[in-house]
Amino acid sequence: MISKTEAAIGMSRKWDAREAGREVAETAIKNLSRPPDFFLLFSTIHYEKYGGFEEFLDGVWDVLPKETPLVGGTVTGFMNNYGCFSRGASALAVSNPSMDIAVGVGKNTKRNPHRAARQCADMIQNRLKESPYKNKFLLNFISGPVMPSIPGLGQKKYIRSGFISKFALQALGLSQALVQKGLGREDEIFEKTVQQLPDYQMILGTSMDDYKGMKNYQFFNDKILTNAVVNLGVATDLDLDVCTTHGMKATDLHFTITKLGAGNHAICKINNKPAVPELLQLLHWPEGFLTEETMSHTILYYPISLKRHGREVPIVMPVIMKDSIVVPCIIDDGEVSILTVSGKNLINAVKENLQFFDRIQPEFGLFSACMTILQTLGHKTNIIQEELHNYFKDKSFLLFYSAGEGTYSKEKDITYANMSINTAIFGHDITKEKI
Hints:
Low-confidence stretches: none
Shape: globular
Structural class: alpha+beta
Number of strands: 27
Largest sheet: 9 strands, mixed
Number of domains: 2
Number of helices: 11
Distance between the termini: 16 Å
Radius of gyration: 21 Å
């Protein structure tokens, strides 16, 4: 079969923003025989200090054909056919004459996530509703968390003061409404988008900086945005599917959430006791074991399997405020379990994920993955890159690391999980050709 699909990876490791923008576009489109139908662009946050993102995008548009639909933003790192990187920029450029494309944008995601989701989805729906191609896909890319700075403390993942913690929990909703800082609310945006576009298969990712949670940016055509959701919609005759897997395993440690707070974003009590002391007892950790320094080396390896609208939501515990655990999405109360994760299980999750696509001969692939995987695996991340390279061979793939991720399809519904690998693969279903 001669494919009419062309896909290419662009990449730059240059420090200067303008030069990097030019190079990431040049290296992508030089491998296409015709202009790209869309251009996905991801970069690390460092370009803010090396020329700025206006210069970065200007460099891209020095090269990229005008009017090319472009979405993307800042991420913690990325992986492609050439390796895995925590600094630089990468792009996926795709051209296919049997493909319709739409891009959408919604603003003020932390203040009014449902309105932002509607604005963005409406743009996609209006552009693609007349498309003759029945297979629909959406990249839902959302501004991630921007944690507010607490006077006298700055941005902390662990707050010991009961007074400050109580104030911070109460201020969380106010901060989102007024200054648009706090949690990304990507779970709410994702669910609203699914409600509006139920026939689309989707992959979710969030925009982030270098793990600090201080700022992030989204790219929409030639604009630099904050607190926005940007979507890429694709209608195509290519076969496609999505899948989420994670490396978390159940343990026999269970507890019951008996009190929630902060709009159901905080676990205040478990087993009718203050949440953090009870969690430490369940894990057999001494009082004072968790600190700002030990958080990333301990708690990330003990996620919790929560519930949201009856669905399993395995997530990490990124912020602790005195006796309360702040979680990245809205959750239900009730019985949950503590999970565990290891580097070996994370790598096996990638293998399991790719096995789901055995029937598809790939043309290109897009992945979102939890940024904590990059932290956890370190140099062993190369093993994942090798697995993807062996699957795609000479076909293009791009993975970006973010702070909230998931997939959606009618068959599997919404899947949202931290420490996860989320995949969208476009290609040809070989089982159809045999029939």
